[in-house]
Amino acid sequence: MKLFTCPCCGQLLFFENTHCERCGHRLGYVPERNELTALEPESNGAWRSLSLAGGTFRFCANAEHDVCNWLVPADGSAAFCLACRHNRTIPDLSAPNAVFAWRNIENAKRWLFYSILRLGLPHPRFGEAPEPLVFDFLADPPDPSGPRVMTGHDNGVITIALAEADDAERERRRTLMGEPYRTLVGHFRHEVGHYYWDLLVRDGGHLEACRRVFGDDREDYAAALQRHHDDGPPADWQGRFISGYATTHPWEDFAETWAHYLHIVDAFEMAEACRIAVAPAADTSGVLAARADIDVYAELDIGAITDRWIALGFSLNAINRCMGQPDVYPFVLSPAVISKLGFVHRLVRGTL
């Protein structure tokens, strides 16, 4: 994720901003240009960009509910933006707190789509080939004894439980499941990993190469999931997997690794935008000395990326501990995990 600046006053802007806090201009994101632009209203209900010459836009229809600040061309027919076109089911907006929960979910989904677009990944919509990417955002039934909505992926459909948008409930589930990390954006990145396994691995001709790295996906998934719930991860899992859940099945190992790849890529772009340099004084060997001066979208060597990431993660964790907060990145990148990240890196770049 990069930083943005207001073209009118130079104010630093973040991806989620909808108004410039200094000059007050309305802001909208143009995904095709990766530009957060200041806007002036036109007489016909459209908006004129102050940084893109000749650019006139309309807001995504979901801006009506204050859940989206992405733009569509004013002369086009699309009502929804590039990201919202993938929604199949949204919450019942008459339900209490539904709009608030949906807003949190959409914020996380737009971070996902930022990565999808920056990495040039395919994202077919309804009616397009290959398998379209579809989102259902579902609430639990009113009857507390009824079945709960499960976040997951099935044949291109990613379901996000509305309850995950509640910070307290998500923390309760994180603690119950013994997870070091659980976020909305993490859910999106993990579940879309399953989608891209279908699209890039299974349908992309890389099954055998993937099996050599992650194991045989033909293992019975239901039995593997039950075994994980009954016994938990093996004692030595950290030497071979990025998380305990990754040990469940090769599909989950791939999805967890994919999610972490997106974590690393997104964080590195922000670190570079902030000109962050890492060189702990106690590190006389230079192992943890690194600058976030790497273009992760162009770098071929996963080792160059992970060397810098380990240094950056160490420093961010140390800072958070000073503030009495848990680690930003509570994971260990073993050589086996770095090899798996390298597979995802080459898969994304099309160099397998």
What does this structure look like?
It contains eight helices and 13 strands. With 352 residues, it is α+β, with helices and mostly antiparallel strands. The chain has three domains: 77 residues, no CATH class; 110 residues; 148 residues, no CATH class. The protein has a five-stranded antiparallel beta sheet, with no helix packed on it. The chain has a four-stranded mixed beta sheet with strand order 8-9-11-10, with helices on one face. Helix 3 packs across helix 6. The two termini are 25 Å apart. 33% of the residues are buried.
Low-confidence stretches: none
Give the ordered list of helices and strands. Answer: EEEEEEEEHEEEHHHHHEEHH
Instruction: Estimate what percentage of residues fall within beta strands.
Output: 5-15%
Work out the number of β strands.
Answer: 13
Largest sheet: 5 strands, antiparallel
